Amino acid sequence: MELLDKLKIKPNNLSLYETAFSHTSYANEHNTQSYERLEFLGDAVLELLMSEYLYNSNKYDEGEMTKKRAHYVCETALWEYSLKLGLDNYLKLGNGELENGGKQSKAILSDIFESFLGALYLDQGFKTAEKFFKENVVPLIENHEVDFFDDYKSALQEYAQTDRKSIEYRVISETGPAHHKEFTAEVSIDGIVFGTGTAHSKKGAEQEAAKDALTKAQKGSVSWEEHMK
Prior knowledge:
It is built from 13 helices and 3 strands; from the N terminus they run αααααααααααβββαα.
């Protein structure tokens, strides 16, 4: 596997890595295992590695470490780790999932980061998993290359100072099959639409809409002050 060559990993059990990139839809079509069990394991390994990293930094108290860890292992962060490493290039999907845009799914790409880490831990041991983490995740954190923030709705409320304003989220469309729906939401403040967003859940679409509104406001592409009077 090209990825392993790039990371200078000599696998003892290549099938573990093949499983790590096999989505449930692919596993069902090919009568093989999906990445779900490896994802479960990788989640625990990542939490330990991140906890150790934050503890050793000696910068934060317990409460701050808990908040930092939550940001650094949230779905958005894992999605970006996957993209930075090019893990999406190795993802195996069933035909239906592929047609529905699974290659771009934030949820799936965040899953395979954890499943890959789980496979690496089983195949090479904790020390190699730790080395991978320090070489490929820590620099993204310390160089601020990843957007770890995931609660744009709260940020929008604070930014707009909405103690006297009315923020409303509304789902304006639903597309796709029942097992892979895509929702589009819009956010309005006092009846004026400021942003739209699309995701595979209603809550996710609302977060994307809030992010869109914040981005436009901060870039000055909407007359924020005029509407906030």
